[in-house]
Amino acid sequence: MQQQHVDVLCFQEFGDNKYFPMDSIRRVLSHWKYALIPAEDKKRGILPIAVFSRYPLTNERFITYPNSANCSMMCNIVLGRDTICLLNNHLQTTSVSQNRKKWTRELATDNTRREAEAVQEAAETLHENFVKRAAQTDSICRLAIASRHPVLVCGDFNSLPSSYTYYQLSELLQDGFKSGGRGYMYTYRYAKRMFRIDYAFHSPELKCVNYFSPNLDLCSDHNPVVFTVKY
């Protein structure tokens, strides 16, 4: 990220452990002077999220959602006399990765009842999480509309371009890949590298001049999204 001259880093899963504590993480990321790391995430069962920046961050707001471990973070990036509102998001997971082995095992049996139950459970889980993502998307849209400043909305949305989430956000904001990217792009490293589920949207007042997703082996199932906007 330093080599790419990135000014703001948005993490959708961010946490420390006994081998790599928070002070070590801060030293590694000391290039970005300002940071927002909610301290109560783990205690409340929320997946950690964070923003690091070379510019001051103000008016931070940590946003949680009912019956979900996922969350969003809202703040202002102060660029001299200009201000941009940032919404960093990790929307409801599909739970496919967490349950894949169990569902696959059930479907591989010769027990018709167990196979039917596995299909039913998978369908209900996917539907429940879709409903949660839809409500979370509506909340993000309301916050973006209410902002007095141009908006950047980025993160892991766990949603395809054919989804309700993508449709609602692309109606309100511009998809950075469409305005500043080129060629073919995916962000989910598995499933034959066919899916784009991580996005960066921006207000029309902001011009996206570059947008790409480098294929990096970072012990993650997602590639990062890197984009540049001018105001």
What topology does this entry show?
Blueprint: E1 8-11, H1 22-28, E2 34-36, E3 50-53, E4 57-64, E5 71-79, E6 82-90, H2 96-107, H3 112-146, E7 151-156, H4 164-172, E8 174-175, H5 176-180, E9 198-202, E10 207-212, E11 226-230
Parallel strand pairs: 6-7
Antiparallel strand pairs: 1-3, 2-3, 4-5, 5-6, 7-9, 8-9, 10-11
Helix pairs in contact: 2-3, 3-4
List the keywords:
alpha+beta, single chain, three-stranded antiparallel β-sheet, six-stranded mixed β-sheet, globular, 231 residues
Plain-language structure description:
The protein is of the alpha+beta class. The chain has helices spanning 22-28, 96-107, 112-146, 164-172, 176-180; strands spanning 8-11, 34-36, 50-53, 57-64, 71-79, 82-90, 151-156, 174-175, 198-202, 207-212, 226-230. The protein has a six-stranded mixed β-sheet. A three-stranded antiparallel β-sheet has the order 1-3-2, with no helix packed on it. It has a two-stranded antiparallel ribbon with strand order 10-11. Helix 2 runs antiparallel to helix 3 (112-146). The longest helix has 35 residues, at 112-146. The protein is globular and about 60 Å long. The relative contact order is 0.11.
